[in-house]
Amino acid sequence: MQTLLSQILSSSDSDTLWVADENSKPLLQAGLNFTGHLLSNRWDITHKALAQGIRAHFCDFDLSVAGSQYSRIIYPVSKEKAAVHHVINQAPTALRNQGELLLLGNKSSGIKTYAQKAAQRFGVEKQLQKHGNDYLSITRSTGTAEGVPLDDSDYPQLRQPEALAGLYSKPGLFGWNKVDTGSALLARHFGDFVTETKEVRAVDLGCGYGYLSSQLAGLLGNSTRLFIEATDNNAAALLACERNFLERGITGRVVAGDAGSEIEGSSADILICNPPFHQGFQVEGDLTDLFLTQAARILRAGRTALFVVNEFIPLGKKAQGLFQQAQLLEKTKGFCIYRLIK
């Protein structure tokens, strides 16, 4: 899909909007020549685009943020159906008359179904082209009445799923409506490594909707001066985490960044982390390396980082050279809990 996407983007004009999620990152790394606007729900992609002189906007797939009507919207479809439906629903308003919505994906991405749904949303006939193993859907705005909006699970709205016991979350986050098993296992160890008698500065690296931060804050309560910096790369995660900090009275701040890139070095007494194991459709081992490197930079000397990873990730080995000690605390249910000491 990268070849097809690159060809389309390179031939697009300045009135084009590229809706970019993790599938688009390789093109930015290759220095793509693109003259239009980019909108992404990922901070790293937005930051990379801005550094290359591309007009870019970081948000949770809100097509109105860029403030324009476009001749073309290009969207390599995301892996989450609610996000794709949300983008398709907004497209008729964001496009000028005769503007085009281009959806790209391979067969396993659901692109054929999305092509049909886009046509229904616009009230036109489906157009789907096959390019090797990839497909391109082209849906043109006619300026006439639109079809019924698709079910996007009320994508923009924060809500409190029953399984989260009062925490806010939303579609756009992996596992948004449940407590991650690894995170729950990690939180059980917090009490062994924090005290109630001093100030504690904590960093929640890859915070998601803020489950780990909420568990840490609940453990310490009002008996200590706790300040938590929670950081994530995903716009939906930041919105949810900010709401949970506000609702639960957690003292701290929520920071956009790539694996903690915007957190000050040597600033944390304790660091907690459940790093993502999947980016897009692929497992990326170097993501763990990135999180470990940033954790070592952020943590104060002699202090503890608590990580949970899938058991197939050799975190203890990867931590060598970055931390003085890597202690396996628990191995259960396919996860390993580690204590790392800087």
UniProtKB/TrEMBL annotation:
Domain Methyltransferase small N-terminal, first and last residues per copy: 46-120
Name of this protein: Methyltransferase
Pfam families documented for this protein: MTS, MTS_N
One of the GO BP terms on file: methylation
Residue ranges of domain Methyltransferase small in the record: 167-339
Top-level taxonomic group: Bacteria
Coiled coil feature spans: none
GO MF annotation, one: methyltransferase activity
Keywords from the named record: Cytoplasm, Methyltransferase, rRNA processing, S-adenosyl-L-methionine, Transferase
InterPro entries according to UniProt: DNA_methylase_N6_adenine_CS (IPR002052), Mtase_sm_N (IPR013675), RsmC/RlmG (IPR046977), SAM-dependent_MTases_sf (IPR029063), Small_mtfrase_dom (IPR007848)
